[in-house]
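Support reply, case 0932

Customer input (verbatim):
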Amino acid sequence: MKFMLLATLASLSLAFYTLEEGIGIGDPMPMADAKMKDVSGKLLSLQDVKGEKGTLVIFSCNTCPFVIATQDRYHEVAKMAKANGLGLMVVNSNEAQRMGVDSYAAMQDYAKDQNYSFPYVLDENHALADAFGATRTPDVFLFDAEDRLVYKGAIDDSHRDAGAVKEKFLEKAIKHLSQGKAIDPAETKAVGCTIKRVSK
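Our regenerated output:
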């Protein structure tokens, strides 16, 4: 009985560690072929939106103040991703708020209000977020053409004020990826609201 208890605690600790740490630099893209419902009504996978140079994934939502504060930067990032041969997918994993502010209908309204020109998909039961180890909104993951993670973390160093940005982490990572250069830093700390998960 004692051994079983210790084994259970160990497995829980491992699960917690995996979620907190998530996939690491150089790791393959999880669930690349999993279909998720876009606000357009289409079912899309990460492979469906992949570009010639790779794929950018942003975990987001409708109401997080951190997302709202960086919303204009999403459009800048989308333009840069397209110009550098990257596919882009924005993912809503807030399953605990699916009956309210992060419902599919609310996502459709939000995408329309924000003039999204890129896929915004519903991550059912936060399966993709769990596979990535995503914990925040926004939380950014950049993959190369071989579907290997090359950058994860924040868009830049000033989530509250775009005018105060000194380091554009994601922009630099995208440029270096397209130029075949090493990405440094390859990891930064994502700052934002926690993804609203449900108990399993």
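We compared this against your earlier run and they match. Two observations from our side: The beta strands are 36-38, 43-44, 54-60, 86-92, 120-122, 136-137, 139-144, 149-153, 193-194. The longest helix spans residues 2-21. Please reopen the case if you see a mismatch on your end.
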